[in-house]
Amino acid sequence: MVKVGLTGGIGSGKSEVARRLAARGAVVIDADKIAREVVEPGTSGLALIEAAFGPQVLREDGSLDREKLGQIVFADSGKLARLNEIVHPRVGERVAELQRAAPADAVVVYDVPLLAENNLAPMYDLVVVVDASDRTRLARLTGLRGMAEQDAVARIKAQATREDRLKIADIVVPNEGDLDDLDARVEEVWARIRRHRTADA
């Protein structure tokens, strides 16, 4: 098994790279998706969040109001730590479960937005960083996602710098062009990952 950490700043195209690696046979484990799953209605994670932060963090349909919860925890480091105590172990358990279910010779790609911020690079055999300039990312966030410019700038600034991500990269995927360019780059990355798997076998 080859464990690949995949990261990139918001608007870099990381999700597009993850989709293309999955299409080539990688087992993709999406940390953000799992973090949402472990707090869905009916889970112990959501019950603990309600107990810790009150019923005001739930929507009328019983699902988590992420915006309301964010306003509470990002203004109070103690509350953020409490939320992380609830969510992180559940994410870790689910990731381990998915990893155990993967074939022994699989390429497992962990899609982790905050890989650099949380110093997780040592956990992986290879770290792939999807890279685009801040200007390109800002244009994508405002143009393709319809985000207000000041919100997009704030999101970019809240993450690791481009330089910090590039420092931990074993493989860099430049993504300033179109999707055809990206396909060609991902094909090169896939070939390199497979060579790594063969070398380790």
Automatic annotation (TrEMBL):
Source organism, top-level taxon: Bacteria
Keyword field: ATP-binding, Coenzyme A biosynthesis, Cytoplasm, Kinase, Nucleotide-binding, Transferase
PANTHER family (alphabetical): BIFUNCTIONAL COENZYME A SYNTHASE-RELATED (PTHR10695:SF46), DEPHOSPHO-COA KINASE-RELATED (PTHR10695)
Gene: coaE
GO molecular function: dephospho-CoA kinase activity
Annotated catalysed reactions: 3'-dephospho-CoA + ATP = ADP + CoA + H(+)
Predominant location category: cytoplasm
Enzyme Commission (EC) number: 2.7.1.24
Pfam families found in the cross-reference section: CoaE
Keyword hit for Transferase: yes
UniProt function note: Catalyzes the phosphorylation of the 3'-hydroxyl group of dephosphocoenzyme A to form coenzyme A.
Intracellular or extracellular location(s): Cytoplasm
Key word Nucleotide-binding present: yes
Listed name of the protein: Dephospho-CoA kinase
Family, per entry: Belongs to the CoaE family.
Pathway stated in the Swiss-Prot or TrEMBL entry: Cofactor biosynthesis; coenzyme A biosynthesis; CoA from (R)-pantothenate: step 5/5
UniProt binding sites for ATP: 11-16
Gene3D superfamilies: P-loop containing nucleotide triphosphate hydrolases
Enzyme kind, highest EC tier: transferase
